[in-house]
Structure prediction request, 466 residues.
Amino acid sequence: MKKNLFFTVFIALCLILCVIPSLFMTAFRSDETIGNESRTDWPSVTKEDGTFNSRILEQMGSYFETHYAFRPQLITADAEIQSALFQVSNTDSVTVGSDGWLYYSSTLNDYLGKNPLSERGVFNLAHNLSLVQSYVTAMGAKFLFMVPPNKNSLYPEHMPYYYSVSESDIRNRDHLGEKLEAAGVSYLDLFDLIGAQEETLYLKHDSHWNNKGAMMVYNRALDLLEKEHETYSQVPVRYDRIHKGDLSNMIYPSDNSLEEDYAYDYETLYEYVPGPASSDPVSVEDFRIETSNPSAEDTLLMYRDSFGNTLIPILSNAFAHGYYAKSTPYPIARDMQQYTPDFVIIELVERNLRNLAADPAVVPSPRRNIDPALLEVQPDLESSVQTLRADANYIAFSGTVPEERIDGERRIYLAVQTPEGSMNLYEAYTVTNEETDYGYAVYLPLSSFGTLEEAQQRKTVVYVEK
Prediction:
């Protein structure tokens, strides 16, 4: 009898706990987004055109999943139990390590050597950057490329034991420096710079470097660019609990405890320039940011990811105008013409290096005059001709060279027919995709053709270096 009563009470308590999130939604509904979530709103019965919304039940379910009562507290409690007892995460986005360390799960492929770029793929990345740098310098600006390492590339000792076996010994960064040097790309090696420091410069509960690491990168970058700047070596610095980690926010959303980080006490000399269509305050998380500083000189154009968040304030203190963009692929030709920068920086985290080989930046492909004896024609290859998604002012001629016809680090060229019937030769981006490392792409202004249809009628011939 007592045993039956115990099970009855236990089941009743479980049922009560299960219905609490629904029963209390009215009074304690959770409206905050967690991690990289997008906000969900209560669905409408009808669509914009007035017809019935057939997905309303599905959308109501999605709304409940992100708004049920006590959601942050329940997620945090579940995460703390799983991490403490089993050293596992309750979210796919975060990997729980030892001693409370958190890692971004998107870096696991790099950490385990899973699906790395081939040597040709790394060559493609470096070659594409060399074409970008040539365009930038031809426009009168200085160029710099830098790669923030994944946290577990620098500090792997706290990674979970069950990730101790790698799938490959190859990492995308292994040949990066030598390929960039061979291509003549101006490169700041952050693996060496940060990895050489005895002090840990990444945050325990965040996927990024701390403010001291950002300050080190800022100083080294502007040194390489030969840009005069304040080093902040003499400003007061305190080490205090001031930072809420992005990974901690994903896995422990109701835990408001802060992590220690460096705070530099310097004067802010710049102002954010608000966008024309927004009255919201500017945030370093915004996709496009503009800053103005009347006490400085020169203009900076920077393509960056979230590692740039801590760089934006100190860089903006050093430049009269700063333009920061997260747009990919990088619309460099358009932005160079609009902003006429004196300096261009590309900052791209290690886990996303493949993007530069797969989806090159938008600059016009350079015209070349090469001795035909140095090229091998590929007469039976056809190019796809489309308007470029990232910039409708450009036409993309793209295709693939069969792997058996090209080896090593040979470049690809495309001849495109002119209105007069002659052929202009262009050096192509070399492209890596899911099927091959021997793709190519040539970007040319739409104004050279008038219309997409006219571009599609032009004859093209593919060449490969002998």
Observations:
- The CA atoms of residues 76 and 255 lie 7 Å apart.
